[in-house]
Amino acid sequence: MGVVISVINNKGGTGKTTTSLNLGAAFAEKGHKVLLIDLDSQCNLSTSIGISESALHVGNILLGENTIEQVIVQKEKLDIVASTDTLLDYEQRINNEPGREYILHEALQTIKDKYDFIVIDCAPSLGTLSLNSLVAADYYIVPMQAENFAFIGLDKILQISEKVKKRMNPKLELAGILFLKLSGKTRFSQAIISNLNNNLELKNKVFKTHIRQDIALMEASAFGKTIFDYSKSGRGAFDYRKLAEEVFLKVKNK
Predict the structure, then answer these.
(1) What is the CATH number of the domain that holds 29?
(2) Tally of structural domains, the chain
């Protein structure tokens, strides 16, 4: 049965989409069957894989208009459930539904056996859709940057996730906190990383792999490609391969 990973942070610009896309692609490069799910109305994950518009999308699944099998788009190396720029309207429409946080979890039950990994790209919020991702997930990853205000929202994410684990999804675990866009080992960035590593509650919860600054990561998504299709020998591809190996070691016995 596939391992479901939610990539979540309620702060924008932290690298959620870059990580969802390229972690999934790194798994696929190793021969794993991977499904990506775009839960963000900005549709960045969808466009990053070459889908500018999709007739069917995740909103149709949330409202029960279509099954997930009908919505999945099969690409050459990755499958994806695309998003829509009207997704917030769909979120509002399910807010009065009983058990609204379980909709995605229920939808995934029919296809989990077909995939090794299912990676969910969340919007920069902790609304109903992000809660859906946590209820559906086995693990969650929190991407962040080693910069001023990097910790804003981290405590809230951890608190919400712990409540989801206690009340709705007892199998949910933090896979790790991932630092992105590192530009050299500056004193400030190292201080932030060290601070988290020395936090008793987060001990061993920071990924050893860091995603270094790499212009190719930004260029790849702009051209609708993964980093492995755009610059497979570059530092971005190297880092995401290492991350995939680290994540795999954490989840393989789930």
Answers:
(1) 3.40.50.300
(2) 1
pTM confidence score: 0.94
Please report the DSSP string for the chain in residue order. Answer: -PEEEEE--SSTTSSHHHHHHHHHHHHHHTT--EEEEEE-TT-HHHHHTT-S--SS-HHHHHTTSS-HHHHPEE-SS-EEE---TTHHHHHHHHTTSTTGGGHHHHHHTTTGGG-SEEEEEE-SS-SHHHHHHHHH-SEEEEEEESSTTTTTTHHHHHHHHHHHHHHT-TT-EEEEEEEE-B-S--HHHHHHHHHHHT-GGGTT-B-S---B--HHHHHHHHTT--HHHH-TTSHHHHHHHHHHHHHHHHHTT-
16-43 residue pLDDT tens:
999 999 999 999 999 999 999 999 999 9
Per-residue pLDDT of 80-91, as tens digits, reads: 999 999 999 999
